[in-house]
Amino acid sequence: MLILSIISIILLVGLDQFVKYLTVTHLINQPIVLIENVFELTYVENKGAAWSILENQIWFFILITVVILALIVYAFYKKMIYTKLGKFSLVLICAGAIGNFIDRITHGYVIDMFSFKLINFPVFNVADVCIVCGGILFVYYMLFEHDKFAEKAGKK
């Protein structure tokens, strides 16, 4: 399972970085409207988090990312996650964190491209999708699976 997790992380980070490359090479000053007044692809340099929260706090985001990645590695190493869903959720979070970490280290900002115009929603990227989906799955895992499987494993 560990090898599959590592391969999945590499593939997801690769997809994130490839989409960001396409964004930089094709969308600067030329957004692509997919659904008029609803959804478009655009180039945005995000120096913060969603809605530019904590803008220009790159070292804070780098520190948080390193801590989160260390906790995920520790959880895998100590076998603290008992189901495939729990492990997959951490793979998604890890891939998303690494994808945005690469941007912050190489550019000083995160490249975003998916823009919903219909609602006031932050522009986001593939890494953000991984983090949000992974976070939702991890909450589900912790609420409904972790204790049950921890008991079976004799850890609770």
Biggest beta sheet summary: 3 strands, antiparallel
Strand order of the largest sheet: 1-2-3
Q: Tell me the number of strands.
A: 3
What is the strand content? Answer: 5-15%
Average pLDDT for all residues: 92
Overall structural domain count: 1
Report on the architecture of this protein.
With 156 residues, this protein is α+β, with helices and mostly antiparallel strands. The chain has one domain. The chain is 61% helix and 12% strand. Helix 1 packs parallel to helix 3, helix 2 packs antiparallel against helix 3 and helix 3 runs antiparallel to helix 4. The longest helix has 25 residues. The model has no long low-confidence stretch (mean pLDDT 92).
Write the layout of secondary structure elements.
Elements: H1 2-26, E1 32-35, E2 39-46, H2 58-77, H3 84-107, E3 110-116, H4 126-144, H5 146-152
Antiparallel strand pairs: 1-2, 2-3
Structure characteristics:
alpha+beta; single chain; 5 helices; 156 residues
Concise synopsis of the structure shown:
The protein is of the alpha+beta class and 156 residues long. It contains 5 helices and 3 strands.
